[in-house]
Amino acid sequence: MIVKTMAGNEIPYAYAIASRSLDEQYLPDAFSFFMAQWPAGQLVAFDPSTGVAGFLVGGRLSGNRASVAILAVDALYRRNGLGDMLIEEFKKRAALEGRNIIQLEVRTSNLDAISFYEKRGFRKTELLRGLYNDGGDAARMVLFSGMC
Ligand SMILES: CC(C)(COP(=O)(O)OP(=O)(O)OC[C@H]1O[C@@H](n2cnc3c(N)ncnc32)[C@H](O)[C@@H]1OP(=O)(O)O)[C@@H](O)C(=O)NCCC(=O)NCCS
Q: Which of these, 4, 57, 52, 3, lies nearest to 26 by C-alpha position?
């Protein structure tokens, strides 16, 4: 399994994983929007024989920030280190352009994901009430990476 830049023709596969994995539904256009904004910030975990197993959609924010807009690994492939690989590669790519602060929003009820991020150095900074379409709350989490 490798982590590489997402190709345009891989968007439907990433989108299908997002639809299966996340409560919040995204439009395929969201993937194209982020790809146009920052091609190198879109990643897939890919196996030549089985295809796309997970993905990360990243965004550029103002200043030295980047965001993890969407991250998901297909259920069959979880707990094999792919989520970790996607985050690590994204941190490297963000750092290449001086973006050492990585930010994301995660549903407060998604305890597994919150624990996953906390173990990777992200810290909760804010509660965003009603961020999701169904009224669910989000925690903003931030990682200050590559700083002493
Ligand atoms: C959150 C998510 C992306 C993590 O992806 P993942 O590929 O399972 O992540 P990893 O395998 O790198 O790490 C998950 C856990 O598996 C463990 N793990 C990794 N390789 C392992 C292995 N070979 N055997 C057993 N456990 C392993 C990791 O140590 C980690 O545990 P930890 O968090 O307690 O340290 C995935 O669970 C997911 O897609 N969830 C649904 C969508 C979602 O909630 N996305 C986030 C929304 S903001």
A: 57
Q: What distance in angstroms lies between residue 132's CA and the mean position of ligand 1's atoms? A: 22
- Contact assessment for residue 67 and residue 109, using Cβ atoms and an 8 Å cutoff: no
Asked whether 57 and 100 are in contact (CB, 8 A), the reply is: no
Domain borders along the chain are 2-144
Give residue 90's region: left, alpha or beta (phi > 0; psi -120 to 50): alpha
Atom of ligand 1 nearest to the CA of 106: 48
Amino acid identity of residue 25, one-letter, is: Q
CATH topology of domain 2-144: Aminopeptidase (3.40.630)
User: Average pLDDT of each block of 10 consecutive residues along the chain (148 residues)?
Assistant: 97 97 90 97 96 98 97 96 98 96 97 96 96 93 79
